[in-house]
Design goal:
With 475 residues, this protein is an alpha/beta fold. The protein contains 16 helices and 18 strands. Strands 9-10-5-11-4-1-3-2-16-17-18-15-12-14-13 form a 15-stranded mixed beta sheet, with helices on both faces. Strands 6-7-8 form a three-stranded antiparallel beta sheet, covered by helices on one side. Strand 16 and strand 17 form a beta hairpin.
Length: 475
């Protein structure tokens, strides 16, 4: 596995000297005060608000929505596209429309903006397509691309240009994990320079990628970092990070270079928007704040993700003593419309019966993955989307008002929010557990004011889903 585990883990435990931490925080605070640019976070699924609080998220990107997003006092907002579930052609069209409307809203309001393309911390998604389309829609031709997949809450770290995930106390290169084998977005390389070369099909070679090392960050080498950012032979720059303070040091340089006229587009996981936006850390949300006590119906939990972590968490949830009703949805009927409709109706009726009696219903897709023998990534995405439509239809047809909703999986939670619950705008309140965002649904949605817990498929320990559901059920 390359480097010694003790050496690797030591990078995660590093503490900046107190005087250096205070210096960085002071510099960053001053730069944020002087900054006049909005941060527009274009999120490829709804899990991206895993680190922030009291921020608006929009599920549409028409001019009316974005004009609202540009209004003071907002300095940061999210646009949830769910593009990770789309075909390449569709996501290109979406990104093109978004950047055109952002440029329009900027012109109308006079407010400048910086783009963050928020993607998966395990490197899945439409890269480099999304950043290429976004950059093409902006006027500055020399826009530098930053790659920052560090995400502490999800246990993802970049050390010596290699991206790792922490699993049971060991740092595993992401290319060797299940995420590297993803049928739609798989890859081989964990070294991010080689990963960029792989993903760009050699159009950007590894030696054309710059790197901000942990050594530079921890020596507070602002001059050296800015020199790498200024280097013309590096169209793309990797930012290593193993702690939030590493990103804060980089953020100082980011804002210094913006002041000098540099232009960036950042492809990042969820930690960078928090740091770049100056968002404070707050305690996890208490379940009592999320549940409407006058609603005596049961809650609704929908588990759609099929990554290993989700299945392990579902198995743990099934051992709960909270009196939950578990209902399996057999998505293997997806290629037979009549059987699929009959199966969906059965699930709807079982969930309504449980919820009306005050019992929380847990709907979960059959855990066995079926080989559809369709081959390519585009076909896999199309089948995944069809299954998501089926699950969304179930949520839409349940007529018992849930006390709360928890949805496991990014694609599933997006589809249900937009199509079943008609959400156009929501407020990210905070997190129910590390990396698990909570939305308060906006006016005009099917359940205005309801807490909507978005539980990413690849986040948390085996106990996290059970802990969240039990806490909500007990209140």
């Amino acid at each position: 596995m390359g480097e010694d585990q003790d050496v690797l883990l030591s990078f995660l435990k590093y503490k900046y000297p107190k005087d250096e931490e205070e210096k960085v925080n002071s510099l960053l605070h001053q730069l944020l005060m002087e900054n006049d640019r909005l941060l527009a976070v274009i999120d490829d699924d709804p899990t991206g608000g895993q680190t922030v609080h009291d921020i608006n998220v929009y599920t549409g990107w028409n001019r009316e929505s974005l004009l609202k997003a540009f209004q003071p006092p907002q300095n940061m907002f999210y646009i949830m596209t769910n593009s990770r579930s789309m075909t390449g052609a569709r996501t290109a069209a979406v990104q093109r429309e978004i950047v055109e409307n952002l440029v329009w809203a900027s012109g109308v309001t006079g407010r400048r903006f910086e783009l963050i393309s928020r993607g998966d911390s395990t490197l899945r998604g439409h890269y480099p397509q999304e950043t290429q389309v976004l950059a093409a829609g902006l006027s500055q031709a020399d826009r530098k691309e930053l790659l920052i997949p560090y995400f502490h809450e999800g246990r993802r770290y970049t050390i010596n240009d290699i991206h790792y995930l922490l699993d049971e106390g060991r740092l595993i290169p992401v290319g060797e994990s299940e995420f590297g084998q993803d049928k739609a977005f798989g890859y081989k390389n964990s070294d991010l320079k080689k990963w960029i070369e792989e993903k760009t099909k050699g159009n950007v070679t590894a030696d054309q990628v710059g790197s901000i090392s942990l050594e530079m960050l921890r020596n507070l080498d602002f001059e050296g970092i800015n020199a790498v950012l200024s280097e013309r032979r590096y169209p793309k720059v990797i930012v290593n990070a193993a702690t939030d303070m590493d990103l804060k040091v980089f953020a100082v340089c980011y804002y210094q270079m913006l002041k000098k006229g540099m232009n960036f587009i950042a492809r990042t996981a969820s930690s960078w928007p928090k740091i770049a936006g100056g968002i404070s850390s707050v305690p996890l949300m208490e379940a009592g704040r999320l549940v409407e006590k006058s609603n005596l119906n049961g809650g609704l939990v929908i588990v759609g993700s099929h990554v290993k972590k989700t299945t392990e968490q579902l198995n743990t949830l099934m051992k709960s003593k909270a009196g939950l009703r578990f209902i399996e949805f057999n998505q293997h009927t997806a290629l037979e419309p009549a059987r699929l409709a009959q199966e969906a109706q059965r699930v709807v009726e079982a969930a309504e019966s449980a919820m009306a009696s005050g019992v929380t219903a847990v709907i979960y897709t059959k855990r066995e993955r079926l080989d559809w023998n369709k081959g390519g990534a585009e076909e896999e995405l199309a089948i995944t989307s069809r299954i998501a439509d089926s699950v969304t239809g179930i949520a839409a047809r349940i007529r018992v008002n849930p006390r709360f909703v928890v949805v496991k999986g990014g694609i599933t939670s997006s589809e249900i929010a937009v199509k079943a619950y008609r959400v156009t705008e929501a407020r990210i309140l905070g997190q129910a557990a590390e990396g698990v965002p909570v939305w308060r649904l906006g006016e005009g949605s099917r359940y205005p004011g309801m807490a909507y817990v978005i539980f990413p498929g690849n986040v948390g320990s085996n106990d996290t889903l059970r802990n969240v559901v039990e806490a909500l059920t007990d209140h």
